[in-house]
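FAQ

Q: What does a record look like?
A: Structure on top, sequence underneath. For example:
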C-alpha cells in the first residue's frame, strides 16, 4: 500500500535535482522511493549518486560565457579549444 508524502522544497533545489535525476534516468518519486527503501533496509544512507560534472552550474555558466564570446566576436574557437581541457 502506498502513502502520499507532501513536502516543501526550495524551487531552485527541486528544479536542479529534477534535472540531475533526469540525467541518471530517474524521476523524483523513483529516487525518493529508492532512497527510503535502502535507508530502512541498511539503516544508513547506503549509496552516493553523482552527475557528470559537465552539467554542473559552474561549467554550464562557463560554456554560456564562451558561446557568447564566440558569437559576439570577442573570441575565436579553434580546433585546439575543442580538444584541450583547461583546469580552472
Amino acid at each position: 500500500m502506498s502513502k502520499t508524502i507532501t513536502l516543501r522544497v526550495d524551487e531552485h533545489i527541486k528544479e536542479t535535482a529534477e534535472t540531475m535525476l533526469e540525467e541518471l534516468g530517474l524521476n523524483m518519486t523513483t529516487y525518493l522511493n529508492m532512497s527510503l527503501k535502502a535507508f530502512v533496509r541498511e539503516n544508513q544512507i547506503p549509496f552516493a549518486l553523482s552527475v557528470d560534472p559537465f552539467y554542473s552550474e559552474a561549467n554550464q555558466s562557463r560554456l554560456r560565457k564562451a558561446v557568447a564570446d564566440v558569437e559576439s566576436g570577442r573570441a575565436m574557437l579553434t580546433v585546439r579549444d575543442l580538444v584541450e581541457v583547461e583546469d580552472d
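Q: Is there anything notable about this one?
A: The chain has a mean pLDDT of 86.
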